[in-house]
Each structure stands twice: as structure tokens, then as C-alpha cells.
Amino acid sequence: MPNSFPLVSVITPSFNQARFLEATIQSVLGQDYPNLEYIIVDGGSTDASVDVIKTLESNSLLLDSRKHSIAWWVSEKDKGQTDAINKGFNRAKGEILAWLNSDDTYNPGAISAAVKYLTENPEVAVVYSDCNYINENGKVIGQFSAAQTDHRRLREGYVHIPQQTMFFRAKYWRELGPLDPSFYFAMDYDLWTRIAAKAPFKYISGQTWANFRIHDLGKSSTADDRCWPEMLRVHYRDGGSFFSIIVAKYYVRKIVGPLWKWRIAKTSKQVNR
């Protein structure tokens, strides 16, 4: 790692996730990377989320100089997750950006590993790694099938990017952002296709930087049927044809979708096993 550490800004959008929020925050504040800006954007939660944030904000101020604190947070009504992420990045000062949802967690050393690769490979815009699936209690129950992708493969629906592990250069946010607020689910996919048209992505195999929590109230459980239609909107917007792999994958997904939801529900109940 070089002597000059670029500032990394991590945004956590949250709404009524007090059950998991503490683990998310602790996984960020506990990172060993020395130059970190952490921003939490809460959408006006009505559960104990604000109490969790305030408690960890106070406690983090008592930690030694090797630890981190919450740089800024807010709890106010917004237009949803995409709006919250945009709001956070509008305040962010980092050269490298990431967002971590309020039910997911980083593994130790994740940020240091991502920055090391981006620093050594200035031509790369986005770096990502492997990701675990965890259940409500944080137990590993599987692994996301991450793989190398690029603009052509992204356009065909071969995403294979665990959003929880993704870090990207702020210059591309300034040039190509913000996230499109009309997307509920595929706002990350939309941004990735825009960035991938400009610069390479890199998958770091053999490293697991984050954990994707599967639970009954997660978007992947409750609104997965909204994802692929939104991805098709990006496909057609960018001149895609009906006779393409991503359209075929969409119709296959419609058939297997109920099975996928059943699998998510089943794995999310493995809490006490």
C-alpha cells in the first residue's frame, strides 16, 4: 500500500433495518484502511435505526486513532434507496466510492484490498471480489457466483458483480452519475453498463470482501420480479435487440422465478441451524 492513502467514501442507505444495521456499521468502522469517510443516509426510519446510529456514533468517538467514526448521517424521508445513495455520494469527498446496504457487511481488510488493486492498476474503473450469502444470524449459507465481466457481457445480462464488494473511481461518478432514480432494483446495473463502456472492470478471485444477507424482507426476496424488466429497459435504451441473450434470460427467469423465491425463503429460515 502506498504512503498516500486515497480517501474512500462508503455510503449506507437504510430504512427500518435496525435489526441488521449495527452489524453493517461495525463492519465498516472496523476496517483497517486508514483514510475512510463513512456516510449513513436513513430514510426516516420508524424503528430503532436512529438509536443504533446515535449509539455507534458516540462509541466511535471513543475509539483509538486506528479506528473510524461516522463522518455524517441523516434520517429524513426520501424517495427510496436510489435517492439515498445519490444523496450520500453528493456529500462524499472520496476518490474511491462504494455503497453497502444496511443488511450487508464487509469482511476485514476489504477496503484495503480494493484500494491496493485500484492504486496499482489506474486503468481499471471498478474492482469487485467474491461475496458470501449469509442468513439472518450472519451464518454463511452460500456464495454469490461472481465472475469477470465487461461491457459486452453486461449488456447480455451476465452481471456476476456482487454489489456489496464493488469499489469504483469517483471520476466516473462525476462523469456518468448519479444513479437513475426511476430504477428501484437495477440502478447499479444501469450505472455499471455506463461505466463499463468507458473503462475496464476487474474481478479479484479468491478473495471474499463482503456478505450479502438473505432474509424475508430483503429486496432480493420481495421484489426480484422487478429486476429483470428494469435490466431490459437498460438493454433497449442502449439499442439492444429483442433477439438477444438477455431477453432470453428474462423469459427463462420468469419461468424459474417462483423456484428462486422458494429457495430464498428456505435459506433465510436456516437461522438456527
Architecture overview:
There is one protein chain. The chain is α/β, with parallel strands linked by helices and 273 residues long. The chain has a single domain, classed as Alpha-Beta Complex (Spore Coat Polysaccharide Biosynthesis Protein SpsA, Chain A), CATH 3.90.550. It contains 10 helices and 9 strands. The chain has helices at 18-29, 49-60, 81-91, 110-120, 151-155, 170-176, 187-196, 219-222, 227-237, 245-268, and strands at 8-14, 36-42, 72-75, 96-99, 105-106, 126-134, 140-143, 167-169, 201-213. Strands 1, 2, 3, 4, 5, 6, 7, 8 and 9 form a 9-stranded mixed beta sheet that branches. Helix 2 links the parallel strand 2 and strand 3. The protein is globular, with a radius of gyration of 18 Å. The chain starts with 7 loop residues before the first strand and ends in a 5-residue tail after the last helix.
Write the layout of secondary structure elements.
Elements: E1 8-14, H1 18-29, E2 36-42, H2 49-60, E3 72-75, H3 81-91, E4 96-99, E5 105-106, H4 110-120, E6 126-134, E7 140-143, H5 151-155, E8 167-169, H6 170-176, H7 187-196, E9 201-213, H8 219-222, H9 227-237, H10 245-268
Parallel strand pairs: 1-2, 1-4, 2-3, 6-9
Antiparallel strand pairs: 4-8, 5-9, 6-7, 6-8
